[in-house]
Amino acid sequence: MQTYIDQTADFVRQRLAGAEAGHDWWHIQRVWNNVIALLRREEADRLTCELAALLHDIADSKFHDGDETLGPAIAGAFLNSIGVPPVTIEHVQAIILNMSYKASLGHVSFRSKELEIVQDADRLDAIGAIGIARAFHYGGFKNRELYHPEIPPLVHQDKETYKNSTAPTINHFYEKLLLLKDKMNTPTAKEIAAERHAFMERYLEQFYREWEGN
């Protein structure tokens, strides 16, 4: 098992060299660490969870013309090349295909405890201090405004609207980040998310005070 994980970590580290900083190797490592932490209190197949955490952003669709099949395909080919059992490969691919926030806005036909844990681990990295940093980094990467008082957030979006959004970064808090606390699957993640959510709320209060010159 550990050989599979070590080989996969090396593959992902090399593959994501130079990636956008919110979705680079360090993001993968944080999600991986989150999975390990969650598994101390949650029961699930460790190999599937760790492999899925390592490979979940191997080809994020937003950096590949919206292609949501590329990531699972690359992950499957690599895992097959190192001899991971087919049943585990299929499970990892299903997790990658179904774990993203935008996937949850459409029809999700696959669920598993392993998916819940990896999804929680990824969502925890999207909130709190690091989540704020990632949001603004990606907004800068896409040359988006920080905030525009006349552009309101779009809540309850469908999948296509969410994918095609070019809204200011502050809107992203209301369209996704502040919603994640209540979308956590596991009791452990819910506890962690509560503190990070409260930090984001304090940040936004400070942001608006400074925006108004206070």
Explain how this protein is built.
It is built from eleven helices and no strands. It has 214 residues and is mostly helical.
Largest sheet data: none
- The gyration radius over C-alpha positions equals 17 Å
Mean pLDDT: 93
Shape: globular
N→C terminal distance: 55 Å
Low-confidence stretches: none
Structural class call reads mainly alpha
Helix and strand element order: HHHHHHHHHHH
Helical proportion, percent range: 55-70%
In short:
The protein has eleven helices and no strands. The protein has helices at residues 2-15, 25-39, 46-55, 70-81, 86-98, 101-104, 113-124, 128-141, 159-163, 169-175, 187-211.
Task: Furnish the topology, listing elements before pairings.
Layout: H1 2-15, H2 25-39, H3 46-55, H4 70-81, H5 86-98, H6 101-104, H7 113-124, H8 128-141, H9 159-163, H10 169-175, H11 187-211
Notable characteristics:
mainly alpha, 61% helix, 214 residues
